[in-house]
Design goal:
Length: 208
């Protein structure tokens, strides 16, 4: 296994007008977890769905944490670099454009880290229940990159102040951030799906 290899699923596009999606699961998920969500958000889009390479009590994740809500930032940086390399390789292998990341929880956090550390890897992102991945991030140039951040009002893992800080951090880097706080906890709701589908439809229309 090379450093950039992840166990993954790829489904080619049937709608060539849509951005490819990079699907990044939460703790305990795998490469099959978000395929259904990807199809609901952007029917016909190419789907690239890797499995996290870190195990926590047997559950796949994209990076280590020291405790719930406390991230191992050194590992975050290392794993984001690996994921960026995987995306680069997959783009060549499958002939796809830079994808829009769709990440949930741990997957959203690694997507946020990827935006800050390797901005060119992604065309944009849908961050579902994300938190600030790095306390001292590098200065990234996210000029014009569209980002949808959906937070849960009653999320026991991600405080409202943390998700607001992430939105500000990404905006300051030049991204076009839409941040909505939903009447939900950490789990996803139908509102997440509807908002994500409408948002990515608008992004595709603006890019056309």
């Amino acid at each position: 296994m090379t450093e950039s290899t992840f166990i993954h699923r790829f489904e080619p596009a049937t709608n060539t007008g849509s951005h490819p999606l990079l699907l990044l699961h939460g703790t305990g998920g795998d490469e099959n977890d978000l395929l259904g969500l990807g199809k609901m958000i952007s029917p016909g889009a190419a789907l690239l769905s890797p499995r996290g390479r870190v195990l926590e009590h047997g559950m796949p994740r994209f990076f280590r944490r020291l405790a719930e809500g406390v991230l191992d930032e050194e590992d975050v940086r290392k794993r984001a670099a690996e994921l960026g390399d995987f995306v680069t390789d997959a783009r060549q292998r499958y002939g796809i454009a830079a994808p829009v990341a769709v990440g949930f929880s741990n997957g959203a956090n690694i997507a946020a880290a990827l935006l800050l550390l390797k901005p060119d890897a992604l065309a944009g992102a849908i961050l579902l229940r994300a938190m600030v991945p790095l306390s001292d991030p590098p200065k990234a140039n996210l000029a014009g990159k569209p980002i949808l951040l959906l937070s849960g009002q009653g999320d026991p893992i991600v405080p409202a102040s943390n998700s607001a800080h992430l939105a500000a951090l990404l905006s300051q880097a030049g991204a076009s951030v839409t941040h909505k706080v939903l009447p939900a906890g950490h789990q996803l709701s139908q509102a997440d799906v509807t908002l994500a589908r409408n948002w990515i439809g608008n992004v595709a229309a603006e890019a056309a």
